[in-house]
């Protein structure tokens, strides 16, 4: 539902089955005996013919025989037709009557513009302008939402690609059986899959060491692993046993940390879209 301001008159626009309906009741709200104008317009023979043509074009369930009877009666002094009668007799969908809040008589935009022209050509032109402005704003919002969704998709693609490198791989039998000179290198292998020396040989142009280029999540995981390694040493586990355990822990913790980041990002973008 949206509202547009037409010559200081607030007019409601709703969507039904992806079609725009405009409130006729709002359009005549500031006119004396405005509600009577809707029924007066509906009793007009030209209006009946116009409504019938529209229904036959867009409504497969339109009751054409009943419509012919109504059309033949239109114009006679005794002819009376309400919105409710028109809908019930012909199964019309172009005009609807809503009850409750924001209730009133609504018409498909094609019919609403015709009604506006009948009430006041000037009002119709202003209505067309404001309705077009509303549609342009909706298109802008739609484009923005599409861009946000694309950004989210690209983010997931990007982070999934990064996580292939961030989440540690299971160690090979050779890595498990190797005796590492110090505990720091053993932790590097559990986390990064290589020793500090191996990393320097692979990245001769980079300054510092392997941990200087670690992500925040990797550093958090390394800190946890250092504490756990101390516990495992006290439990007198061999280096190969500790390495295997720490590698499994690194894989598990990194998966958890990366998923938390994903959810935080998606929650943030969803809240911005609301």
Helix/strand layout:
Layout: E1 2-6, E2 9-16, E3 19-23, H1 24-27, H2 34-43, H3 45-58, H4 64-73, H5 83-90, E4 95-98, E5 104-108, H6 109-119, H7 121-166, H8 173-177, H9 183-192, H10 196-202, H11 216-234, H12 239-273
Antiparallel strand pairs: 1-2, 2-3, 3-5, 4-5
Helix pairs in contact: 3-4, 6-7, 7-12, 9-12, 11-12
Strand line-up of the largest beta sheet: 1-2-3-5-4
Classify the helix fraction into a percent range. 55-70%
* SSE order, one letter for each helix or strand: EEEHHHHHEEHHHHHHH
Query: How much β-strand is present in the residues?
Result: 5-15%
- N- and C-termini, Cα separation: 15 Å
Q: What's the mean pLDDT score?
A: 82
What is the approximate shape? rod-shaped
Regions with little confidence, pLDDT below 50 for 5+ residues = 161-166
Largest sheet composition: 5 strands, antiparallel
DSSP helical segment count? 12
Which value, in Å, is the CA radius of gyration? 35 Å
Structural class: alpha+beta
Count of β-strands? 5
Give the total of domains: 2
Q: In words, what does this structure look like?
A:
A 5-stranded antiparallel β-sheet has the order 1-2-3-5-4. Helix 3 runs antiparallel to helix 4 and helix 9 (183-192) packs across helix 12. It is rod-shaped and about 105 Å long. With 274 residues, the protein is of the alpha+beta class. Residues 161-166 have low confidence and may be disordered. It has helices spanning 24-27, 34-43, 45-58, 64-73, 83-90, 109-119, 121-166, 173-177, 183-192, 196-202, 216-234, 239-273, and strands at 2-6, 9-16, 19-23, 95-98, 104-108. The protein is built from 12 helices and 5 strands. It folds into 2 domains: 2-142, no CATH class; 167-273, no CATH class.
């Amino acid at each position: 539902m949206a509202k547009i301001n037409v010559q200081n008159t607030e007019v409601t626009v709703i969507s039904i089955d992806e079609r725009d309906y405009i409130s006729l009741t709002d359009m005549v709200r500031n006119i004396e005996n405005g509600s009577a104008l809707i029924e007066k317009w509906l009793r007009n023979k030209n209006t009946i013919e116009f409504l019938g043509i529209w229904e036959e074009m867009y409504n497969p369930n339109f009751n054409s025989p009943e419509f012919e009877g109504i059309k033949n009666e239109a114009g006679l002094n005794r002819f009376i037709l309400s919105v409710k009668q028109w809908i019930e007799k012909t199964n019309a969908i172009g005009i609807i009557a809503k009850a409750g809040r924001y209730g009133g008589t609504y018409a498909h935009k094609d019919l609403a513009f015709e009604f506006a022209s009948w009430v006041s050509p000037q009002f119709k032109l202003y209505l067309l302008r404001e309705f077009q402005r509303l549609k342009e704003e909706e298109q802008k919002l739609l484009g923005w939402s599409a861009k946000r969704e694309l950004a989210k998709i690209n983010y997931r693609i990007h982070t999934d690609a990064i996580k292939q490198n961030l989440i540690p791989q299971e160690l090979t039998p050779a890595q498990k059986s190797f005796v590492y000179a110090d505990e720091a290198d053993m932790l590097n292998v559990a986390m990064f899959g290589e020793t500090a020396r191996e990393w320097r040989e692979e990245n001769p142009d980079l300054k510092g060491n392997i941990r200087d280029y670690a992500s925040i999540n990797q550093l958090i995981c390394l800190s946890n692993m250092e504490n756990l390694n101390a516990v495992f040493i006290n439990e007198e586990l061999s280096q190969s046993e500790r390495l295997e355990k720490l590698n499994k822990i690194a894989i598990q913790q990194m998966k958890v940390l990366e998923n938390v980041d994903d959810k935080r990002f998606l929650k943030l973008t969803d809240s911005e879209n609301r």
